[in-house]
Amino acid sequence: MAPPAAQRIVIENCAIATVDADDTEYASGHLVLAGNRIESVGAGKAPEGLENVARRIDASGHLATPGLVNTHHHFYQWITRGLATDHNLFDWLVALYPVWARIDERMTYAAAQGSLAMMARGGVTTAMDHHYVFPRGCGDLSGAIIRAAAETGVRFTLARGSMDRGEKDGGLPPDFAVETLEGALAATEETVREHHDASFDAMTQVAVAPCSPFSVSTELMRQGAELARRLGVRLHTHGSETVEEEKFCHELFGMGPTDYFDSTGWLGEDVWMAHCVHMTDSDIAAFARTRTGVAHCPSSNARLAAGIARVPDLLAAGVPVGLGVDGTASNESGELHTELRNALLINRLGAHREAALNARQALRLGTYGGAQVLGRAEQIGSLEPGKLADVVLWKMDTLAHASIADPVTALVLGAAAPVTASFVNGRQIVDHGRLVAVDEDAIARSTREEAQRLARIAAQG
Fold first, then answer.
1. At 217, is the pLDDT very low, low, confident or very high (cuts 50, 70, 90)?
2. pTM (2 decimals)?
3. Cβ(290)–Cβ(269) under 8 Å?
4. d(Cα 397, Cα 197) in Å, to the nearest integer?
5. Residue 231, Cβ density class (10 Å: 0-12 exposed, 13-18 middle, ≥19 buried)
6. Where do transmembrane segments lie in this chain (predicted)?
7. Angle, to 10 degrees, between the axis of helix 243-253 and the axis of helix 89-100?
């Protein structure tokens, strides 16, 4: 808990959705933040006689929730939005890999700034980036991404990705954009040792994250899992995203994606997979038995016509499920709060129809579910005393939401709600919809310039 002398922020008069184990909610309640921890949360006014109160916030007309947790993204894609808009996954990758293979440190930093800024101003307090494109001579891409996250003020997990199966080996990426097996493992270990923080209130963590079965050798998958467990960090990759991927796995490995992952050590409570759209009952049972997590990316899955993930069945089986923006070349909005709505709506198009998900389940996916998937459910994802002070105040009394009586329903099914304040580790990073620590207009200019520079370089071949 926070020390007694910690400065306090008192938030009062707001509706509160704690997303705790009992889904406790308050129609009008309070939060007390002490240092970087939540000290108290409850109905009515804050306790009397609090010392060291640095600030009091009258949050009338607002809903307080845990900060949103993004569990899958590719920041570099911010500067290649709006391309290959009518492609399936494999055709999309073939079209874009030659462009992505020419990114450098300056481009990656600008793209990370853009991706982070868009998420943070929309209520994301914990972000992650699965970065796996490391062209030769590109500079320190991992360091650039981590620097952008620190400047924005969000809590961050870098999934240090890798690819070693280029075109000559039957993969999709150009050969000059992949690493060697030894080089990928060494660079990943160096990134973990330099940047991973295992402490309770860590702002930066690192996961081991070979890209996907069709861009990574079996040996990189196997040794990557061994490396992660030796270093005590989590594992992340793409899995079961499309029917084409399933066909690829059967042709190359003689088994489906889940069995392949199992054979390489890639099922376990320290693992989470992106997408998991094409899952059989036995696949879901394997994930549930091993507590393997899933990052559900509904907008990206729809954009690439991948299909509808069986989220209700995954949840019913006890599989941890969070939400992901995914890269903005397949989800141009770059926002996670819109994924709450899309997760609910798209899943209702599936077999479970109107019983698939409700508003509170959608909010749980975007908060506590994401914390579970990132291995941080003890620290974030719900508003409870002792947890880290990652809190969002959504303004719910404007034209867009004021006539919806239930604030959680308004947040999930209504228009994107304005963020009046967002706190990470007890520090405010958004104030009335604007980022506090970085200049959004400057980021917009730099991302446009870097997108244009990348387009020129790619056009030159």
1. very high
2. 0.97
3. yes
4. 39
5. middle
6. none
7. 80
